[in-house]
């Protein structure tokens, strides 16, 4: 499927950071070059929104990725966490969700501040509040890339399609395999 008007992405950045990363113990990482070359622009509608998660260490790369995918970053939304994290210079207690657009893609809600405050959960678990926030601002259909858990479901919630490395995926991206692709292969197909 293509023509997603809103895409949420939390790339598994393989960016060297002093003091170790730890993410590779939870999921496979991707190089910046591999992330940049994903055909995300082919999945998006002409008028679309992108919500791209970055850490403080990957903030600069996030702008490059959004641009490579055909989007222009309009504003960062900062997640203020309730606890201090690690850091070589300052103690990290924030992550950022870059909001980007392509084409003519106005927002549905204009009163969202540039920050949210939500508790930290397990490793790389973004706040559940992100879905309601995104649905309030951005139109569907929705796609989450690099999904690590299913989005919340409910009769009053829009459906999110997912592509991810830790849950079954609804879509396939040529050249970018995830574990659930083996379930979708026809018998006798190549892995």
State mean pLDDT (0 to 100 scale): 86
Classified by CATH, the class is Alpha Beta
N-to-C CA distance: 21 Å
Give the percentage of residues in beta strands: 15-25%
**Main beta sheet strand tally, sense and closure:** 7 strands, mixed
Count the DSSP helices.
5
CATH names the topology as: Rossmann fold
The secondary structure category is alpha/beta
Low-confidence stretches: 186-191
Assign the CATH superfamily: Vaccinia Virus protein VP39
Helix and strand pattern: EHHEHEEEHEEH
- Principal-axes geometry comes out as globular
What's the architecture, going by CATH?
3-Layer(aba) Sandwich
**What number of domains?**
1
Helix content: 10-25%
Give the radius of gyration: 16 Å
Strand segment count: 7
Strand order of the largest sheet: 5-3-4-2-1-6-7
Ordered list of secondary-structure elements with their pairings:
Layout: E1 4-9, H1 32-36, H2 40-43, E2 44-54, H3 59-68, E3 72-80, E4 94-102, E5 115-117, H4 129-137, E6 142-145, E7 160-163, H5 181-184
Parallel strand pairs: 1-2, 1-6, 3-5, 6-7
Antiparallel strand pairs: 2-4, 3-4
Write up this protein:
The chain has a single domain (4-184), classed as Rossmann fold, CATH 3.40.50.150. The protein has helices spanning 32-36, 40-43, 59-68, 129-137, 181-184, and strands at residues 4-9, 44-54, 72-80, 94-102, 115-117, 142-145, 160-163. The protein starts with a strand and ends in a 7-residue tail after the last helix. It is built from five helices and seven strands, in the order E-H-H-E-H-E-E-E-H-E-E-H. The longest helix has 10 residues, at 59-68. It has 191 residues and is of the alpha/beta class. Helix content is 17%, strand content 24%. Strands 5-3-4-2-1-6-7 form a seven-stranded mixed β-sheet. Residues 181-191 have a biased composition (Polar residues). InterPro entries: MT-A70-like, SAM-dependent_MTases_sf. Keywords: Methyltransferase, S-adenosyl-L-methionine, Transferase. It comes from Epidermidibacterium keratini. Belongs to the MT-A70-like family.
